[in-house]
Give the backbone structure.
Amino acid sequence: MDVADVVVENYLESQVRSLGIDQLRERNLDCVWVSITPATSGGPLADLPSFDLLAQARSGLMGVTGEPDGPPSKVGSPVADVVTGLYGAIAMLAGLFARSLERPGRRFEAPLLESTMSALINQAQGYLATGANPKRLGNDHPSIAPYGPVTTSDGLLLLAVGTDQQFVRLVKLIGDERLSRGEWATNDERVAARDDLRSTLNAIFVERSSEHWLGVLNGSGVPHAPVLDVAGAFAQEQIRDGDFVGEMSSPGGPLATMRTPLLIDGVRPAIRRGPRRQGEDTDSIFGA
């Protein structure tokens, strides 16, 4: 039987007890143990089954996602699962490093609820510091303007003007007197009048195409981006002509897939193998 360096499990507390998983850990004290749990163990939610959607709902993430006059909305990808998985990976690496320092047998827990709440970042800290409950702002930023999409003649373009200097640069680039208003000189003033500012920007940008405005803004130092669908994201030159998309083997033949976004000494690690067939590793794990 092979010996594992790391065990990652996501059983409920009641399942851990009924399956005797803790006994397995006690017999392998050198092993790094990572538990992915619904919520921090010992709490009232720790034994309730949970999934990405439920974590987004309970964490407050859905509460700050969506249009101001619409219902809460989940994020379009399983961000709760991803964030929790990243915490689990960090825990695993920390455990392996601790073992190299002769401190083996560390047990880590990455709770789905608290991990998702940590992703609220400024929204959560703003609430903790002021007691003001964050509201849904659609694609706007709670404390920066303009910071969101504007409507062009054929789509949407995102502006993320984070400083007063960038706003001055944007006004000069556009060259439209409708933006030359003294009450928009500072970010605080722009946030206070964000609806009026958005309407003015939309009235200007809708007169030309997204391609035109990208040509104006590219290289200007004004943060911006096109709003793309998934196909458009993969069609970008950065992605299309790079090595982020690779190929791996699968039971059905070669399969295109995303590689890790990480680079190690300037090199993206290769895909060593594709997904395993069901039961392919049974003998290796449990012994022939």
